[in-house]
Amino acid sequence: MKEIRMVDLKTQYNKIKEEVDRGIKEIIDSTAFVKGPAVTEFESELAAYNNSKHAISCANGTDALQVAMMALGLKPGDEVITSNFTFVATVEVIALLGLTPVLVDVNPKTFNLCPSAVEKAVTEKTKAIVPVHLFGQAAEMEEINRIAKKYNLFVIEDLAQAIGTEYTFEDGTKKKTGNMGDVGCTSFFPSKNLGCFGDGGAIFTNNDELAAMLKSVVNHGMTKRYYHDHVGVNSRLDAIQAAILRVKLKHLNSYNQARQKAAEFYDKAFENCPNISTPSRFKKSTHTFHQYTLIANEINRDNLISFLSEKGIPAMVYYPVPLHLQKAYADSRYSEGDFPVTEKLCKTVFSLPMHTELDEEQLTYITDNVLHFLKMA
Questions:
Q1: In this structure, are 240 and 261 located in the same domain?
Q2: What distance in Å separates the CA atoms of residue 362 and residue 44, rounded to the nearest whole number?
Q3: How far is the C-alpha of 284 from the C-alpha of 286, rounded, in Å?
């Protein structure tokens, strides 16, 4: 049996090695390392994949969020509502820009923003909502958009973990994540469903005026060379990463399908286990399983993770500390106990290996060992 990894990028690369190596060599031969045709072509292909009018590439997913907030004209003191159960980047950029992060609790089943909690958090200072499509499943976007329209708020989607996920609205309309708010932000960190070989990110929008601003902000605020009409940043996707992403984008649907197939295997193996809860499905959203995250019910999660590690099976906790209890984001508005769902999830969730290269032998070994631990517990 192959070594089990949380993410097996080496095996994935070996299957597309010829295409990737050829793309990298073309960039080296052209010496167009920054911007250039490869980046432009990737942006066009990415926009087409997502059914978005514009896709603007940038240096990483964190920059994507920051650039989006800058381009939307958010000012210090403006409040931005987002999830308390997510990676720190989402609130990091809010703090960096002098905005005020307003954290809300999440749905205990889907782990995504709870719309009723969002609406309760709206004040006269609120300017935007950042729904995070966590672990590969879309947030309740129809309801979030309703709230945003009611209070005249921007919606900035964080789809770093859910590219390719599709949402079905009540009228039957289907849209991909990143294509439902004012702007969508994603990451191409290597472990993502669509990952490059370093850092990278992108921003989606269907608004022409906003797209022009985003393009300016990512490139030092320039509207044309050496003319700086806006305060900007230096956040560009390099051409080698674009060449890699162009190859992998062609395989993204099959990559997501492989993840879904692995998730179905896990689901079936654990369907009769009261000690763990498998990932819940939100009926309006597909799930592309950036992570396969379970909840430990009345068992010692850390003991399970240690047991699996002894068997050569990695398992991870995303995320062990709620944002409101992180030292960097300590805030007198919040204290322990204020976010009961998030706090409980941080103590009980764990993720099993999830990637495109999991085979049945590995999945059987993983699930057999989890089940063995549960019988002993």
A1: no
A2: 37
A3: 7
Is the pLDDT confidence value at 377 over 90?
no
The token duo for 208 is 């022409």
Mean pLDDT score across all residues of the chain: 97
What is the span of the domain harbouring residue 359? 252-376
State how far the Cα of 235 lies from the Cα of 240, in Å rounded to an integer: 15
* Domain match, 202 and 291 both: no
- pLDDT at residue 224 above 90? no
- Indicate if 23 and 126 belong to the same structural domain: yes
Q: Are residues 260 and 321 in the same domain?
A: yes
Q: 227 φ, ψ to 5°?
A: -115, 110
Instruction: Please tell me whether residues 207 and 287 are part of one structural domain.
Output: no
Cα–Cα distance measured from residue 253 to residue 288, given in angstroms and rounded to the nearest whole number: 9
What pTM was estimated for this model as a whole? 0.97
Residue that finishes a domain, picked among 197, 232, 249? 249
3 found inside a domain: no
Does residue 177 register a pLDDT over 90?
yes
d(CA 85, CA 52): 27
Supply the CATH number for residue 30's domain: 3.40.640.10
Which residue stretches of the chain are H helix?
A: 9-15, 17-30, 36-50, 61-71, 89-96, 115-121, 141-151, 208-218, 239-249, 252-270, 301-310, 340-348, 360-376
CATH assignment of the domain containing 297: 3.90.1150.10
Q: Which of 249, 276, 295 is the last residue of a domain?
A: 249
Which tens digits make up the pLDDT trace of 235-286? 999 999 999 999 999 999 999 999 999 999 999 999 999 999 999 999 999 9
Convert the pLDDT of each residue in 26-38 to its tens digit. Answer: 999 999 999 899 9
Q: What's the CA gap between 320 and 85, in Å, rounded? A: 9
- Report yes or no on 1 lying in a domain: no
DSSP assignment, residue 278? P
CA neighbours closer than 13 Å in the CB half-sphere of residue 294: 26
Domain total in the chain: 2
4: Cβ contacts below 8 Å, ≥ 6 apart: 312, 313, 314, 353, 362, 365, 366
- Asked if residue 106 lies in contact with residue 341, where contact means CB atoms within 8 angstroms, the answer is yes
